[in-house]
Specification:
Elements: E1 5-9, H1 13-25, E2 29-34, H2 37-46, E3 51-54, H3 63-74, E4 77-82, H4 85-88, E5 96-101, H5 109-120, E6 133-134
Helix pairs in contact: 2-3
Amino acid sequence: MSEQSVLIVEDDVLVAMDIEAVLTRAGYQVCGVAVSQAEALAMADRAPPDFAVVDISLSPGDGRVVARELWRRHRTSVLFASGQCEEVRGLEHSGAMACLPKPYQAESVPAALRAVADIRAGHPPPRLPDNMFPLRAA
């Protein structure tokens, strides 16, 4: 796989560290870890990522705003990884491609990003990680 860049937007430092370690082992380039909406958008403006793994509930900020802005500004493919996934059902225009509800295993994030890439390319993903659901049709 060519090295694709990922921005992690998560205000729980331990969760962010787990995701970063798993993605790095899977061959992704983690271009940053942001804990707030403002930090995420500033990082993405400096180095637009291919993907973003975004928690919806940020302190401070809102992951839905992050997803919309990342898509609008950079066409970044966003995966919500959040305990608030039920709140995002029907938000196909949020910029996010799919949602991976918490609790999830960090090891499922690379497979989730591969599914997001398939969805973005217009292909049905061969298999979604447990409980993950698309927000856009392939």
